[in-house]
Amino acid sequence: MIFSKIEKNLRDTRIKILRKKNIRNLEGKIALVTGAGRGVGAALAKRLAAAGASVVVNDLDKAPAEDTVQEIVQNEGNALSLCGSVTEKGFGETAVEFILDNYGGLDIIVNNAGYIWNSTISKTSDEQWDAMISCHATAPFRILRAASNFIKNAALREESEGNLFHRKVVNVSSIAGFYGGATQIGYSAGKAAMIGITKTLAKEWARYRVNVNCVGFGLIDTRLTGVWDKRIPTSIEIGDRNHKVGFDKNTRKQLEEIIPLRRPGTVEEAAGALYLFCLPESDYITGEIITAAGGLLSY
């Protein structure tokens, strides 16, 4: 589409201008981004690093995580990889310890890791349900719980020193979590849980100057939402399982047509929505749930 090409050129121009101006409004901040080896997570990790943050790049798969780190370092940024599944017991404690050992602090947490495992409720097994809840609700809860002691103690110490800056938590949900999605009972439930987590911690951690917000994505152009040939469906590997992902050509086209902007979002655009909540400019915004869906509010 010509319109999309024009928009892409404008976005590329804006990025070049920002790089030229060397805007580093997150200088000295330390961030954890889960699921940052590919897609939206990788795009966000690179943007945070370009703004001056030191980024811990988590991913289930080692190679993509290290690729993201390598690109950040090549662009004079600071990043380390932390491979492992966010669903493993103890991952939260391991991640927080790793970050504190290597960087000595933690200012931004982005709970981005996730995947889809869809089927109708009659065909959804307990294993499938548990996997979706574990990844999209339990894992973020455990990471945030593991960070809670550091956040509380650091905030109290900083207050006594007169240093009143804000930390950020950004949770990733989906319009499926807001409105439901056919064949997505487990995924929708997990993503809906992110709303409760966000609203609760926004109240609980306000005293520690932590802004907690949530972004729900619509159709974003990633490997999970691509077009596949019916003869060779696209799949992703999670542990010892392979999951079919993506849409057939007609379904994908129909979904694009009901988006007011008439196209899927890019990973850079999705990362931009998360990035907004990481900035100092969002210091008086907390407990908010927004969509980055090109105007698509339900389907």
Taking strands numbered 1, 2, ... along the chain, how are they ordered across the largest sheet? 3-2-1-4-5-6-9
Strand content: 15-25%
CATH superfamily: NAD(P)-binding Rossmann-like Domain
Q: Based on the structure given, which CATH architecture is correct? A: 3-Layer(aba) Sandwich
Order of helices and strands: HEHEHEHEHEHHEEEHHE
| Helix percentage | 40-55%
- Give the helix tally: 9
**Mass-distribution shape:** globular
Q: On the 0-100 scale, what is the average pLDDT? A: 89
Describe the structure.
The chain has helices at 2-21, 39-50, 62-74, 91-103, 126-160, 175-179, 185-204, 249-257, 267-276, and strands at 30-33, 54-59, 78-83, 108-111, 167-174, 210-217, 234-238, 241-245, 289-292. The protein is globular, with a radius of gyration of 19 Å. It is 46% helix and 17% strand. The chain has 299 residues and is α/β, with parallel strands linked by helices. The protein contains 9 helices and 9 strands. A 7-stranded parallel sheet has the order 3-2-1-4-5-6-9, sandwiched between helices. It has one domain: NAD(P)-binding Rossmann-like Domain (Rossmann fold, 3-Layer(aba) Sandwich), CATH 3.40.50.720. α5 (126-160) runs parallel beside α7 (185-204). It starts with a helix and ends in a 7-residue tail after the last strand. α3 (62-74) links the parallel β2 and β3.
